[in-house]
Write a structure and sequence with these properties.
There is one protein chain. The chain is mainly alpha-helical. It has one domain: Ribonucleotide Reductase, subunit A (Orthogonal Bundle), CATH 1.10.620. Helices cover about 65% and strands about 5% of the residues. It has 14 helices and 4 strands. The strands form 2 sheets. Strands 1-2 form a two-stranded parallel sheet. The protein binds fe (ii) ion (2 copies). One fe (ii) ion binds next to helix 7 and helix 8. Pathway: Porphyrin-containing compound metabolism; bacteriochlorophyll biosynthesis (light-independent); Porphyrin-containing compound metabolism; chlorophyll biosynthesis. It catalyses: Mg-protoporphyrin IX 13-monomethyl ester + 3 NADPH + 3 O2 + 2 H(+) = 3,8-divinyl protochlorophyllide a + 3 NADP(+) + 5 H2O.
Length: about 350
């Protein structure tokens, strides 16, 4: 199959929808003082230090043989795309966390980021093992050098990374629970690993929740509330568009994509009440139509780009304007205001 899928190129490409690599102001993050959340911090770090998933990311007897050659070709394309994009996202966390640990001098921060980079390296490596069996592993060393890095101020790293960790948890656990009920749809063994896996993501999210709690302004000032709303809208709508591009993959999983995405938003929003003061109204009558409009506009952008020429350029401009309008429409849906509880810590209970 090598050649048909240049997975390293797929992972390196920078598009609106592909997972990105991030860099930040590491010195500013190194100055974070965790004293205000010390008790919760120490408990969380002790749990991470004990490394409950140390032996988990290894293939064992549960890893059934995968018939890559006999797989429905349409499913194979989308499943490889899913694995590559998941591997890139996991590895993106690994690279960012490792860099923070390497540059930092603050023992609390360095310890946290060393555990988190350890976990993400395992996650990315495990997915890449699955890709290797198909003969299409991503060259992660190359990726570190070739991928473009996006700079985010530390507070944006908190919002974006907190959300992606909690969404990662919600996505993995929702697929895992669904396949528990419908094992006949489990077309690859990797899904059996998702339960313990998502607990790592849950803890990572907890760490960012605590980091945000060290500075109340991050979640209470007027401007920051608008930023949180922006990140929620951006992350949720991107997920919608990305998932709706994988029709065969979800069909084989026996998952209705609309249901799945709404379920992931619901779980993520419920968890995010621990720290975010606003929540998107995913039951609002304009929510689903807005997501569908954005998805349609982004598909048209893609088509126009492939077409090229003057007509392609023109249709690309119109489609971009439609996507922006749809995004603004989603952003302007009135949010639900919530009051984060005094104690921030939560356990994964889904
Ligand atoms: Fe991960
Ligand atoms: Fe994570």
């Amino acid at each position: 199959m090598q050649g048909a899928f240049d997975t390293t190129a797929m992972a390196t490409e920078t598009t609106l929808l592909n997972p990105r690599f991030y860099t930040t102001d590491f010195d500013e993050m190194d100055r974070v003082d965790v004293t205000p959340v010390r008790a919760d911090w120490d408990a969380l770090l002790a749990q991470m230090k004990s490394d409950p998933n140390k032996g988990h990311f290894k293939k064992n007897a549960d890893w059934d043989t995968v018939d890559w050659k006999g797989m429905d070709p349409a499913l194979r394309v989308e499943f490889i795309d899913f694995l590559v994009s998941s591997c890139t996202a996991e590895f993106s966390g690994c690279v960012l966390y490792k860099e923070m640990k390497r540059r930092g001098t603050n023992p609390d921060i360095c310890e946290l980021f060393s555990y988190m980079s350890r976990d993400e390296a395992r996650h990315a490596g495990f997915i890449n093992d699955a890709l290797r069996e198909a003969g299409v592993a991503v060259n992660l060393g190359f990726l570190t050098k070739a991928k473009k890095y996006t700079y985010f101020r530390p507070k944006f790293i908190y919002y974006a990374t907190y959300l992606s960790e909690k969404i990662g948890y919600a996505r993995y656990i929702t697929i895992f629970r669904h396949l528990e009920r419908h094992p006949e749809h489990r077309f690859h063994p990797i899904f059996k690993w998702f339960k313990e896996w998502c607990n790592d993501e849950f803890s990572h999210g907890e760490a960012f929740a605590l980091l945000m709690r060290t500075d109340p302004k991050l979640t209470t000032s007027f401007a920051n509330k608008l930023w949180i709303r922006f990140f929620l809208t951006a992350v949720y709508s991107t997920m919608w568009v990305r998932d709706h591009a994988r029709v065969d993959f979800h069909h084989h999983l026996g998952v209705d994509i609309d249901w799945y995405d709404q379920e992931v938003y619901r779980i993520t929003s419920e968890i995010a009440r621990q720290v975010f003061p606003v929540e998107l109204d995913i039951k609002h009558p304009r929510w689903l139509p807005g997501l569908r409009a954005m998805d349609a506009a982004m598909r048209d952008m893609d088509k126009a780009k492939k077409k090229g020429g003057l007509t392609g350029w023109l249709s690309h401009k119109t489609a971009t304007a439609r996507a922006l309008l749809a995004f603004a429409g989603l952003y302007l849906i009135p949010v639900i205001k919530t009051t984060p509880p005094a104690s921030v810590r939560m356990e994964p209970t889904y």
